[in-house]
TrEMBL record:
Residues 194-238 form the Galactosyltransferase C-terminal domain. Transmembrane segments: none annotated. Keywords: Glycosyltransferase, Transferase. It comes from Rhodococcus antarcticus. This is Glycosyltransferase. Pfam families: Glyco_transf_7C, Glycos_transf_2. One of its GO terms (molecular function) is glycosyltransferase activity. InterPro entries: Galactosyl_T_C, Glyco_trans_2-like, Glycosyltransf_2, Nucleotide-diphossugar_trans.
Length: 421
C-alpha cells in the first residue's frame, strides 16, 4: 500500500483509511462550503446556530447556509445577527419526521463543493466550518465527523452567544456522551462497524461523494438511523472516515440517553431505530434473519454455478448469490441475472468466480486497511469499498482499476489455507 496519490487541483486519494497522511496539509484556498440545517419549530435554537455560522473564521464569501424547514406551522426567520450571511430558507410539507428528505433538499440546492450538515439545535464554534471542511476539500472521499459537546442553552440569545465565544461566561456544560467519544476516537482505525460514529448533527463530506451515493435514504420517516445508514453506504463506496476533534459544535441539551422523555417511549423509539438500521445495513444484524441486501455478494461463474451456490450457502455468511442461468434453486438467497445496484451499494464484499472453501476465511482476509482483494485461480474476493474507490479515481490517477486498487488497499494472490478453486 502506498502513500496518498495526487489528483488534479491539489486534491488527494488516500490509501485505506489513512486520513492522517494529510494532517499537516491545507487547501490552497478555503473551499466553497454549503451548510445544510434541517429545522422544525426551533426558531430560538436556530437563531443561535445562524449567529454561530455568521461569525466563522471561514471566509463569509465562501460560505452558504441552507435552512430546510420540515413543515413548521410558521416558516423560520433569519435573525438579524446573521445579517450579511448567505442564507436561503427552503421548506417541505409536514408529512412526519423527514430529516433525511430535508437534508437532501438542502444538498440539492447547495452550491458548495463541501457539504457541512448541522442540526438546528447544534451551535458551531467560530472555527468549526474551517476545521470540518479542511479534509473533504483535500480528499473527496473523506467523511468527517466533528465533536458534539453538550450544554444547556435555555434562554440564551445571540448576544450572549457572542459574548461566550469572545471569552465571556459560558452556559452550563452537560456530560459528553462516552459512547460517541469512544467511537470517534477509534476512527483512525475504522472498520465496517464504524458508521456508528457518524452523526448528521456534525457531519461534513464532499458534494461529490454525497451525490455519488445518492444522499440520505428518505424512507427513514421517524427519529434516528438515517445518518448511520448513509455512513455505511459511504463506507462501502470507499469513504475515508475521520474525526476532527477540534471542530466543536454545542448541542442544546443532553444526549439522547439523558433526555427526560418518557422512558418507555424512548426505549420503543430506540428499538425502532435499531430495526430500521438492521434492515438496511448488513453489518448491523444479529441472528439468522435474512434481508434482501446481503453482506456478501457472490457472482457465480457460468462454468459451474451450482457448485458455487453450494459453497456460498454452506458458508454461514449473510450471502446472496447471483447466477447467469436459472438453476431452479428454491432459496431466497439465490437469484438469476445481474446484481441490483442497491444490493452492491450495501454489500461489504463481492466474490466473483469459483468460491474457495472455506469461503468465510477468504471474506475475513479482505479487511479494510489490510488487503483490498484476494485472488486465486478462477476467482477473487474484493472489499466493495476498495473496488469502488479504485474505480472512481483510476482514470484521474492514470492507472487501471486493478493497479489503483492495489496501490490504495493492497492485493494478495494467496488463497486462504484450505481453499480450492
Amino acid at each position: 500500500m502506498s502513500g496518498a496519490l495526487a489528483l488534479p487541483g491539489g486534491r488527494w486519494v488516500l490509501p485505506g483509511n489513512r486520513a492522517d497522511l494529510l494532517d499537516d496539509v491545507h487547501p490552497q484556498e478555503p473551499p466553497e462550503v454549503s451548510v445544510v440545517v434541517p429545522h422544525y419549530r426551533q426558531q430560538a435554537q436556530l437563531d443561535l446556530v445562524l449567529t454561530g455560522l455568521a461569525h466563522q473564521t471561514h471566509p463569509r464569501s465562501r460560505l452558504q447556509v441552507l435552512v430546510v424547514d420540515d413543515g413548521s406551522p410558521v416558516r423560520p426567520a433569519v435573525h438579524p445577527a446573521a445579517a450579511g450571511l448567505d442564507v436561503r430558507v427552503l421548506a417541505q410539507d409536514d408529512r412526519g419526521f423527514r430529516a433525511a428528505a430535508a437534508r437532501n433538499l438542502g444538498a440539492a440546492a447547495a452550491d458548495g463543493e463541501v457539504l457541512c450538515f448541522l442540526d438546528a439545535d447544534t451551535v458551531p464554534e467560530p472555527g468549526y466550518v474551517a476545521r470540518a471542511s479542511r479534509l473533504p476539500a483535500l480528499a473527496p472521499d473523506a467523511l468527517v465527523t466533528g465533536r458534539r459537546r453538550h450544554a444547556d442553552l435555555t434562554g440564551w440569545t445571540p448576544a450572549g452567544l457572542l459574548r461566550w465565544f469572545g471569552d465571556g461566561p459560558g452556559p452550563t456544560e452537560l456530560e459528553e456522551p462516552s459512547w460517541l467519544a469512544a467511537l470517534s476516537a477509534g476512527l483512525a482505525h475504522a472498520d465496517d462497524g464504524s458508521y456508528r460514529a457518524v452523526i448528521s448533527a456534525v457531519m461534513t463530506c464532499s458534494r461529490e461523494l454525497f451525490t455519488e451515493v445518492g444522499g440520505f435514504d428518505e424512507t427513514f420517516t421517524s427519529y434516528g438511523g438515517e445518518d448511520w445508514e448513509l455512513a455505511h453506504r459511504m463506507w462501502t463506496a470507499g469513504a475515508v472516515l475521520a474525526h476532527e476533534r477540534s471542530a466543536v459544535a454545542w448541542h442544546d441539551g443532553p444526549d439522547w440517553a439523558g433526555r427526560p422523555d418518557d422512558r418507555a417511549t424512548a426505549v420503543a423509539q430506540k428499538a425502532a431505530e435499531t430495526r430500521a438500521v438492521a434492515r438496511r445495513v448488513p453489518v448491523a444484524r444479529a441472528g439468522p434473519a435474512w434481508f434482501p441486501w446481503p453482506e456478501v455478494v457472490l457472482r457465480a461463474p457460468g462454468s459451474d454455478p451450482a457448485a458455487a451456490v453450494r459453497v456460498a450457502l454452506a458458508s454461514g455468511l449473510d450471502v446472496g448469490v447471483w447466477t447467469e442461468v436459472d438453476l431452479g434453486w428454491s432459496d431466497v438467497r439465490v437469484h438469476t441475472g445481474e446484481v441490483p445496484q442497491v444490493v452492491l451499494e450495501r454489500a461489504r464484499v463481492v466474490v466473483d468466480g469459483v468460491p474457495p472453501t472455506p469461503l468465510h476465511a477468504a471474506v475475513e482476509l479482505v479487511r479494510p486497511g489490510t488487503v483490498g482483494a484476494l485472488r486465486w485461480p478462477g476467482g477473487q474476493v474484493r472489499a466493495t469499498r476498495a473496488l469502488r474507490r479504485a474505480r472512481r479515481h483510476a482514470p484521474a490517477l492514470g492507472l487501471g482499476e486493478d493497479a489503483a486498487l492495489g496501490a490504495l488497499f493492497g492485493v494478495t494472490d494467496t488463497a486462504p489455507s484450505g481453499a480450492r478453486g
